[in-house]
Amino acid sequence: MRILVSDPVSAQGVELLQKEYEVDVKIKLPIEELIKIIPQYDALVVRSETKVTKAVIEAAANLKVIGRAGVGVDNIDVEAATQKGIIVLNAPEGNTIAATEHTMAMMLALARNVPQAHASLKNGQWLRSKLMGVEMRGKTLGILGLGRIGSGVAKRALAMEMNVVAYDPFINAEQAAAIGIQLLELDEIFPLADFITLHLPFTSETKYLLNKERFAKMKPSVRIINCARGGVIHEGDLAEAIEQGIVAGAAIDVFEKEPVNPENPLLKLDQVIVTPHLGASTAEAQVGVAVDVAKGIIAALKGEPIATAVNMAPIQSHVLEVIRPYFNLAEKMGCLAINLAEGRITAVDVEYNGEISEVDTKMLTTAMIKGLLNSILTEHINYVNAPGVAKSRGIKIREVKSKETANFANLITVRVYTDKKTHVVAGTLFGHEEGRIVMIDGYRVDVEPQGWLIVGLHLDRPGMIGYVGTILGTDGININSMQVGRTEVTGTNIMVMSVDSDVPAATMLKIKAVDGILGAKMINFCVI
Ligand SMILES: NC(=O)C1=CN([C@@H]2O[C@H](COP(=O)(O)OP(=O)(O)OC[C@H]3O[C@@H](n4cnc5c(N)ncnc54)[C@H](O)[C@@H]3O)[C@@H](O)[C@H]2O)C=CC1
Ligand SMILES: O=C(O)CCC(=O)C(=O)O
Question: Is 441 helix (H, G, I), strand (E, B) or coil?
């Protein structure tokens, strides 16, 4: 597999990727060049400079995952990626402290005119009275967006004895109270705040959230800090509000167009201090996001679950800890169940019994669907597109949960309903990691879901196992485990054999032709 890194990311992340895959680092690629070479790659790693547009995604014939070394994914067409089944993941935590501290640095620098003082003194001017500042203590800070960075800023502002209020429609009052601040409506913040800092994503909802109309509602002494995304503030309206004395000053790290146009009106105002999108630019943050994104890319390419995918249901870390050991098992159970099934599949039930039923198991169900569909479709099915593909094929997926369990601490049971029959496969973990299939169509087995498996139904009479064993032996296929038992149909037995290699179709035909064999299936667990 090949990975393209198209923005500067820390060497530690690149080295992690190089241990597993071939990696090309190509920075500042013109978009036409990116479109030309992207079909060669399975994964793409970016920061904010590379614009992963629809055209790039359409050209990306082999791309499976796009990793953003940072938080904001507004430079990636996530919708186009999702439609193509490409996982988009980010590294949301590695730069939180860096962006939080940069916000504090910008707020203090703005309050005390640090950049203006620095520049004038270096220019030979000693401007003490002109550069009078304001204190933070006792002032009201309005935080728009109380996520990772917003809440970090809140804690630091409280330590500086500021009054802190916040607007975030997706956070509840208890979460805000836990930090020690009050949630208000947006319009309630404007007349109160001496400082307003933005920490929300750029979306169609937040575009130009601060504009002419909103500046007019603010205290005339208000100072604004933006270390989130440029387009959240209307830059022209802000410049005008500052010129008119409606806003006292602003500290801006991010711009609607980056690199910023030197003609941007904000650059012409003394009351505006600026940095070139440096929020995440600390040595620690760059290592953090590069390592996190590399781990995410490796997991995605190996088909493992990813906690930081933005176009899949998010998994909380405590949930991931519980369900992680079951992913491989669930996927293999999907593969086995679909291979047993005959007829048109109408629905699939996944039942969780035991303690596992108490956590969110949606991603495990998705893993099962992924295993099921990858066994029958030529298109690549992953965690992003599996639920959509199942839906588009009219397969109804249902989760059933019960804390009750009979023989195992935790049990997953997959039922595949077809227009002919229902097939049931159950699995559990032995120890903490070892996935086992423990039931196939009502028959108790103990099968490691790996390699190749033959499942056959036969009449309950002497010699059947011998015939099959002889055919396999003659064709050079080694049996490494075998179980035989009665099914619920009187006179009918089931045999389950693990074999060391793929079984050619010709060998399977010979087995099926044996008098007394009622049916046989070969399951290749290696294909998923
Ligand atoms: N300047 C820089 O270098 C950096 C910038 N960022 C940017 O900072 C911003 C915040 O990042 P995090 O705190 O990590 O994200 P986060 O996802 O933890 O927090 C965002 C918060 O915004 C809230 N939100 C979403 N839509 C909203 C709306 N319409 N109105 C009000 N609140 C809304 C969410 O509920 C969430 O609590 C992002 O835009 C990110 O891209 C992040 C890191 C570095
Ligand atoms: O990659 C960077 O330097 C920018 C970080 C950023 O803006 C983000 O993580 O959202």
Answer: coil
For the chain, which domains are there? 2-93+285-311 (3.40.50.720), 96-274 (3.40.50.720), 316-449 (3.30.1330.90), 450-528 (3.30.70.260)
The pLDDT of residue 204 is 78
Work out the number of other CB atoms within 10 angstroms of the CB of residue 178.
10
Ligand 2 atom closest to residue 72's alpha carbon, by position in its atom list: 10
Between the CA of 188 and the centroid of ligand 1 the distance, in Å, is: 20
Report how far apart the first and last C-alpha atoms of the chain are (Å, whole number). 16
Distance 280 CA to ligand 2 centre (A): 5
Query: 523 Cβ partners below 8 Å, 6+ apart?
Result: 335, 336, 339, 340, 452, 453, 454, 455
**pLDDT value at 319 more than 90:** no
Q: Whose CA is closest to 43, among 23, 72, 18?
A: 23
ipTM for this model:
0.99
Question: Apex CA 250: angle with CA 222 and CA 99, to 5°?
Answer: 110
What ligand has the least distance to the C-alpha of 200? 1
- For a pocket test of ligand 1, which of 7, 76, 104, 149 has the largest count of ligand atoms closer than 8 A to its C-beta? 149
Q: Is 72 in the pocket of ligand 2 (CB under 6 A)?
A: yes
Q: Find out whether 354 and 411 touch, Cβ atoms under 8 Å.
A: yes
**Token pair of 149 as six digits:** 């960075």
More confident site: 392 or 89: 89
The string of DSSP codes covering 452-486 is EEEEEEEES-TTHHHHHHHHHHHTT--EEEEEEEE
Among 4-8, 308-312, 501-505, 513-517, name the most confident range.
4-8
Can you tell me the distance from the alpha carbon of 369 to that of 383, in angstroms, rounded to the nearest whole number? 9
pTM above 0.80, yes or no: no
70 lines ligand 2 (CB under 6 A): yes
Is 229 catalytic? The answer is yes
Catalytic residue among 47, 199, 214, 229: 229
Ligand 2 binding pocket mutation candidate from 7, 68, 203, 277 (most atoms within 8 A of CB): 277
Output the CA–CA distances (angstroms, integers) from residue 236 to 106, 261, 278, 402, in the order listed: 21, 13, 22, 58
C-alpha R_g of the chain:
30
